[in-house]
Write a structure and sequence with these properties.
By secondary structure, this protein is α/β, with parallel strands linked by helices. It has helices at 12-23, 66-77, 83-92, 97-102, 115-118, 127-142, 188-195, 219-227, 283-286, 290-295, 327-334, 338-351, 440-461; strands at residues 3-8, 28-31, 48-50, 121-123, 145-147, 152-158, 161-167, 170-179, 209-210, 232-233, 239-245, 266-269, 302-306, 322-324, 386-398, 401-402, 409-412, 415-422. Helix 11 (327-334) crosses helix 12 (338-351). The chain starts with a strand and ends in a 14-residue tail after the last helix. The model has no long low-confidence stretch (mean pLDDT 95).
């Protein structure tokens, strides 16, 4: 065999799998499709990990118990989640940080003004790029064999048992394999196929921007589903999709392209009409629904509108938006119908009811007599200058994936493979049927990456597969 455990992928889940497998003493080879300077997949664009904790812990304030985490996840997915696997991820999130630190990951203290986020999420010092670099350094020191620019286009599988992988015409054999090669969000044709044509004759996917890596083409995912008939699940149109700045680059714009002032004003579509409650819940719990909402609007574009009262209350956008002293002038800059736009804002302003504004809580500033309503943080847009930011759907990762269980095994006709495992985006749909809440992607990738790595090594060593979260102790 060329190696004992072959890990296909180069992001957080793949690296967790490689590190855990290597800690058992087996040989490990990792194949990353990207060149070294673009390694890490979407993980390089992340910045935090959602963590359960029953009391304050180092960088985490207050408490975020299992049931609250579960209810947050249940709410954003609309119940479209496997509760057993979801709770397994939640529990694993409470114990993984010591192991992460041993592999060089550093966490930063809570930032001023972000304490409500620091209650639920642990932020990486240096962001996702630092996380990825730390894991690669640790993997190299432990002797993981790493190959860059090594995409895998097909696998040899017999009766559900992995035999070999093919990369750039070379056959690579291993006793066990972990699939962690990401979703298909960078494959424009597959996105087009999934979303199809809408009733307006548009192809929505043509206007999508990819927030992350250009290397997640979904080649291996499609190969597993179509050629090997692996058990799969998920809606191909469901994804972690965020409303991002329309000026963002096609790929790798990352976290900084997000527009974070949505809850502080109103959002209108190309026809200058509001279409959803901007103040439904805290932004970290709702930001990921807005990409899909924008994708459903004419031309797949929308505009976030605020006035000067909102300035300083959110992370300023990277790209300069429109700025005007009057609503009429702002509409002109955004190429919106002036009459329709000013009427929309007038009706919204008239519907705002007095309350005590506090953006750190679910306050009592709301609207009455208008559809859609705004549940919280509803203040009239009446203090110039006014600002407008164009929004496009930004796809982070797709949810169509391989069905698995608490051993992270790939399944064929309901039967778990004895030596083929899956982690990260390729199986996130087991937990995320739809929706998203900040940091949970890293929680899923970390939990299942570690389980997959341990069980791939166990299959090599002849040990039974472990179910559920692994110990945070070095094996």
């Amino acid at each position: 065999m060329d190696t004992d455990v072959l890990v296909i992928g180069g992001g957080n889940a793949a690296l967790c799998a490689a590190l855990m497998a290597r800690e058992t003493g087996v040989r490990v080879m990792l194949l990353e499709a990207a060149p070294k300077n673009r390694r890490g997949g979407n993980s390089a664009h992340t910045r935090n990990l959602r963590c359960m904790h029953d009391a304050p812990q180092d960088v985490l304030v207050d408490a975020y118990p299992e049931e609250e985490f579960w209810q947050d996840l249940y709410k954003v997915t609309g119940g479209n989640t496997d509760e057993h696997l979801a709770r397994m991820v939640i529990r694993a999130s409470s114990t993984c940080r010591p192991w992460m630190r041993r592999h060089g990951v550093h966490f930063q203290p809570p930032l001023s003004g972000a304490l409500h986020v620091a209650r639920t999420n642990a932020f990486f010092m240096g962001g996702g790029k630092a996380l990825v670099n730390a894991y690669y350094r640790s993997a190299e020191q432990l002797g993981v064999e790493i190959h860059y620019e090594s995409p895998v286009d097909r696998l040899e599988i017999e009766n559900g048992v992995f035999q070999a992988a093919w990369s750039k015409g070379k056959r690579i054999t291993a006793k066990a394999c972990v699939l962690a090669a990401g979703g298909f969000e960078s494959n424009r044709e597959w996105l087009r196929e999934a979303w199809g044509q809408n009733e307006r004759g548009e192809w929505p996917a043509d206007n999508f921007i990819i927030r992350g890596t250009a290397f997640n083409q979904g080649v291996l995912l499609r190969h597993m589903i179509e050629d090997h008939r692996a058990d799969s699940l998920g809606d191909p149109t469901q994804a972690h999709m965020v409303a991002i700045d329309a000026h963002a680059p096609l790929y790798d714009g990352g976290i900084c392209t997000r527009i974070d002032c949505v809850s502080l004003g109103v959002v209108v579509n190309r026809d200058a009409q509001r279409f959803y409650d901007e103040g439904e819940d805290f932004w970290p719990k709702r930001y990921a629904i807005w990409g899909r909402l924008v994708a459903q609007q004419p031309g797949q574009i929308a505009y976030s509108i605020i006035d000067s009262k909102a300035v300083g209350r959110f992370m300023p956008p990277v790209f300069k938006g429109a700025k005007a002293d009057t609503l009429e002038e702002l509409a002109g800059q955004l190429q919106l119908d002036v009459t329709a736009f000013t009427e929309t804002v007038r009706r919204y302003n008239a519907a705002c009811r007095p309350g005590r504004f506090d953006h750190t809580v679910l306050d009592d500033c709301r609207t009455e007599g208008i559809t859609p309503e705004k549940s919280h943080w509803a203040l009239p847009l009446d203090k110039p200058p006014f600002y407008g930011y164009a929004l496009r759907p930004g796809v982070t990762f797709t949810y169509l994936g391989l069905r698995t269980d608490d051993t992270a095994a790939v399944r064929f006709n309901g039967e778990a493979s004895s030596n083929l495992y899956v982690a990260g985006e390729m199986m996130a749909g087991n937990v995320l049927g739809k929706g998203y809440t900040a940091g949970v992607g890293l929680s899923i990738g970390t939990a299942f990456g570690r389980i997959a790595g341990v069980n791939a090594a166990n299959s090599v060593l002849g040990h039974p597969a472990q179910r559920g979260p692994v110990s945070d102790k070095v094996r």
